[in-house]
Amino acid sequence: LKMPFNQQTNMDIHGKIREVLAETVRDDQGPAHRALSEVDFLHALQRRGIIDDVMKDLHFTQVIPTDAETGSPPKPAAHFVDKNITPLKKTNIDPSRRYLYLQVLGGKAFLEHLQEPEPLPGQVCSTFTLYLHFRNQRFRSKPVPCACEPDLKEGFLLEIHRDGSTGEGSKMADTTTMLSLCDPVHLVLIKTDTSSETALVSSYFLDWRTVLSSPSGKTCFAVELMGVGSECKVPAGVLTVSLELYPPLTETLSTDIISTQQSLERQRTAEKERLFLVYAKQWWREFLEIHPSHQSKMVKIFAQDENGVNRPVCSYVRVLRAGRLLESPRQAARFVSLLAQEKAPVVGGGGGKQEQWCTLMAFLCRGKGDCEDHTTLLCSLLLGFGLDAYVCVGTKAKVTPHTWVLTRGTDGSITFWESLTAHRYLHQAIDPDAPPLAPQPKPSSPYRTVGCVFNHQTFLANCQPTDAVELCVFDFQNQSRWKAMSEEALKSVCAPGSTTSLPPLPPLCAPSLDPAAASNQLELEMRYLVSEHRKDLELATVWDDHLSYLLSSALAAYELERCTGVSCGNEEFQDAVRRAVPDGHTFKGFPIHFLHRNARRAFATCLRSPFCEEIVCCRGDHVRLAVRVRVFVYPENACAVWLMFACKYRSVL
């Protein structure tokens, strides 16, 4: 960290320090004549309040390491401001780059919270958190209590860098370049209730380019946030936002130029979308002409996002690389399965499912979503890992609509991936023309029918005589079995940058949770809950710390198996337990897996299992209890929580 002072205070402070030095030396030139130490100087400076002045004037700046090979500053990283760190008000910035300083100056008219009482100090209350994504940078605000006028006040420094493909990436963006950058700032507002459940309040795309026409380089306006899903036409609240460019522009644009650019982009997008719709209708007519029964097949060409916007399904899948955050396709599947499943909320009964395929940003910020959100994310990650991956749309048992991922090996093998569980199934089609007694493969997967498959550049409808998965042959080149859409037509509306209505793709964020601290915290809470529960049953609790420690290796093995499909380390665990449990004693253990870190909820779930209840409430001679918690942390702070209760006691015949 460098500590730049500005020149004026620099001189001033040096002058003051010299005065104090002279004074200290005079005062101490008594008969003892001892050498003055550094501590004496510091005390003297502190007495005069000079150290406080210096500390006030320091702005810390991060020295950016340059890339050793090229000597150029590194590419813009994905930023994620952790809520535990209080950012300094003043930030020193790279003078060779252009920045947009976006300030949220408070919220108002969040009418759903009109009756909300003022939270008492220390009381747990529902909170709002605002998340931002702009050109590969992500930020989040500190959580603030939900209120009609929430105190959302936060500043975010967004870097406006050029697209680096032409070698111009490190030059400062000028006015015309910025006018052509149509990437919006994606704002996602999340509400977290008192039991840590998250809900999506609003998802808004902010066009920041109005700032290019303001003479002061600064502009302030109100942003009306709309609700989501069935409430996407209902205002959720208003944020006051101020935008400022740094360094300020030497020349500003007229408002006409900006509005012309925006309307040109809108026209171009609308025209592309209109042409695609004309093409899709024609394609669908041809598909129905093949066989009238195709009308009932699950062929999904468009899907609605959280804002009620209809988009081609192919636009929900992108090639997504996770940098160093995920190591393999199977680990990616494990990560996706740890994001909780929750159907889009719908008001009223009738069993109608509110359709909502979320933008990736909204899904990640909320940390949970429906099966389609999981499937499109898993397909995007598998494409990033270089696999030939597709989303399948069809049904599972009981004719429930469902989506899952399919990958095709170079040898023609077909693997299904269930995005909600990370289970994989090898698909082998039954041959309907085989003689009656010939052995046929048993269907291994839970999927019943498949209507269409798609990825970021392909859309194929199933035109085989039956859409049953067990009879389906996935040879996509065969036009008599699969009717393909034109890749050109899809590219015109689904390729990144093809239309301005496509939401930009956010990067995944590294976890900010400390797994060891989270594991310890939860384990202490579990110990407390077990002791209290036993106290109610008038049982004493004696913990065996050594036995608790031994359970770690089992929990690590369980998670490894979920990630890789390979189980290992069980022999050592069993051997260690045998050594720790003396002759004539009985050992019982109960492992369980959660996606949350709420101790009371977890304990209540555990007690519903008779095996676990038997351990927690164990009575007998020489009873020793053990509990071990291990939190495995993945990108986006997704957690796999493993918990194991165990006991040992003397067996009485």
UniProtKB/TrEMBL annotation:
It is found in: Cytoplasm, Cytoskeleton, Microtubule organizing center, Centrosome, Centriole. GO terms for biological process: regulation of centriole replication. Residues 513-650 form the Centrosomal protein of 76 kDa C-terminal domain. It comes from the Eukaryota. The keyword Membrane does not apply. Residues 92-249 form the CEP76 C2 domain. One of its GO terms (cellular component) is centriole. Its main location: cytoplasm. Belongs to the CEP76 family. This is Centrosomal protein of 76 kDa. The lineage of its organism: Eukaryota, Metazoa, Chordata, Craniata, Vertebrata.
